[in-house]
Amino acid sequence: MAVDRKRGIVYVPTGSPAPDFYGGDRLGTTLFANTLLALDVANGKRIWHYQLVHQDILDSCWMAIKIVLWKF
Q1: Residue 49 — pLDDT band, cuts 50, 70, 90?
Q2: How far apart are CA 3 and CA 64, in angstroms?
């Protein structure tokens, strides 16, 4: 996780849902799996999300993404 204190946003990366190694049997859209979430620190509500891998059936393990914030 990473926090932008100035904007009040916490960035949360997520990984593959279970079952982990083969996702062909998963039900639903797995919308927040393999996703970078931006949450409001004050209330926990979602500001935005970006799903990098849709229906990750091969467990691509992108979860180790590094979050870089630049100070302007």
Answers
A1: very high
A2: 17
